[in-house]
Amino acid sequence: MSKTLFTNAVIHTGRTESEVFGSMLTENGVIRELYPAQKATVHDKNTKVIDLNGQHVYPCLIDAHVHMLLTVAVMAMGFNICEITAEGVQPHTLKGVEERLRSYVSGQKKDAVIACNNYILTAIDERRMPTKEELDDWCGGRAVVIYNIDGHSTSLSTKMLELVGINPEGHSGVLQGEENERTQGRIINKVGSMITLPMLAKGIARFQNACAYYGISVVGALEGNGDSPKDSTTGLIARLARHFDVGVRLYLQYTDLKRVEPFRKKMTHPRVGGCGDWEMDGATGSHSAAFYVPFNDTGETAPCYYSQEFVDKLVKEADENGYQIASHAIGEAAIERILHALEQLDSKHTNRIEHCEFMNDESFRAICKGKYAIMMQPGYAWIDKRYLHTYEQFLPGEIISRMKLKSLYDAGVCVCGSSDSPVQDMDPYLQMLGMVQFYNENESVTPFQAFRCYTAHAAKSIEESDVRGTLEPGKVADFFTADRDFFTLSPQEVVDFRPTGTYYGGKKYQKKKGTVPELLFMLLRRPKKI
């Protein structure tokens, strides 16, 4: 038996804003007891005592919507094109993008596959993605893919087009809408196939270090794309993830449920969906979100990717096979499409709608009456309002006014914060800033409520409220320490907040070095459920 008493602390259970304890006893990675006194004593010589020196203790966060394989790949072999600075977005011209790419590729091999993230289309003066001819020139003919910040537009060089099976003749190299979504599996697999073992070790280490740095103990990993017949990289990352310090909960993005079955016995709960083939529409910045009204700047509307009949059949089949269901829907028409299908079920699961930004009044009422988890990334909207101005340029004011957070939270809806990494950085405190300073200010929530969206609510969204999300006896001892009371912080203090230490199963996380021996040693551990 391995017992540890954490004492001399301010332990916030996360159940209510004011509930605190002074000491916590853990045994074999599970919380056994909470004590009011800061200097509790345990009369067991085998109990290890750790003095936390008056620090605050919080349950670890859960980022329930990340694309882990692509995040690891970007951390291993790519870089961010644009950065948001005090002066605005840099670079903000195609010339500046060219300079960044030329500088980066100068240190890469001619046969390298290069994945670049965080291209902010709406902040680029020319308001477009680079063409294949430009990428060919800037990158010396290498295989290159550039992802727009919303993840729903990409630019491919000629060589990358050829590698993923697209005829470059007459093609601009820019993918949008359904063409973009139905190519992602092949792109990810091609990028993944070029990752060497040292790169993989580095990417996995950086991913886990980032989670621990922010106080995240579990991620919901939305992986797999149906356009890749074998999709070997998804199988690889699933096998590796079973050995991570960070908990991984896999959502397979296949509409062919036969492809999900081989993973099922490895899961804590059967899950399917997310983005990829489970997307009802695209995104606002790429003009592929499905609205009934046209975009301001184009005068056009984007369609849902699937018919109602297909979605109803897909959802029914997944539910009958016992799966929790997750589905990407951003525009009002897309939200209606997935809701219509989910409402036909008598499901025992808390099914998820990913993003769910622009619901109409009827959908809002249906969500409040149902048993759903709504996965949001309000940090993006916070950035957009101050730097990108995508929403105000592209969307009618009446659509923007539908963005809700507090109304959903107050109605008892399971609203969750998440990053959508690598679309955004994994930083949860940016997302919580977006909650306490929500795009529509009257829909803002308190720091405590934002925190609950990353803990208790997020635990419900992965169907693990019984074992995580709060600090209480019987739950896993995943927690982080901090030198400030998070629940009393101002918005600026929220975004600057960082843990001082992160503990998984009662053991302090040790930063990974990213070496091959370290990765191989990790693989010797007993595999966990994902």
Helices, strands, pairings?
Layout: E1 3-7, E2 10-12, E3 20-21, E4 23-27, E5 30-35, E6 47-51, E7 56-59, E8 61-66, H1 68-77, E9 78-80, E10 83-85, E11 88-90, H2 94-105, E12 113-119, H3 132-138, E13 143-148, E14 153-156, H4 158-163, E15 174-176, H5 177-181, H6 184-193, H7 197-214, E16 216-223, H8 232-241, E17 247-252, H9 261-264, E18 271-279, H10 308-320, E19 324-329, H11 332-343, E20 351-355, H12 361-369, E21 372-376, H13 378-388, H14 390-394, H15 397-400, H16 406-410, E22 414-417, H17 428-436, H18 447-454, H19 456-461, E23 479-482, H20 491-496, E24 501-504, E25 507-508, H21 516-522
Parallel strand pairs: 1-6, 2-7, 8-16, 9-12, 12-13, 16-17, 18-19, 19-20, 20-21, 21-22
Antiparallel strand pairs: 1-4, 2-3, 4-5, 7-23, 10-11, 13-14, 14-15, 23-24, 24-25
Tell me the number of strands: 25
Alpha-carbon Rg, integer:
23 Å
Strand content: 15-25%
State the strand order across the main sheet: 3-2-7-23-24-25
Oligomer state of the chains in this structure: single chain
Broad structural category: alpha/beta
Regions with little confidence, pLDDT below 50 for 5+ residues: none
Overall helicity: 25-40%
Mean pLDDT: 94
Helix count from the secondary structure assignment: 21
Principal-axes geometry comes out as: globular
Largest sheet: 6 strands, mixed
Distance between the termini: 25 Å
Key phrases:
single chain, 530 residues, alpha/beta, six-stranded mixed sheet, five-stranded mixed sheet, 21 helices, 22% strand
Structure in words:
33% of the residues lie in helices and 22% in strands. By secondary structure, it is of the alpha/beta class. The two termini are 25 Å apart. The model has no long low-confidence stretch (mean pLDDT 94).
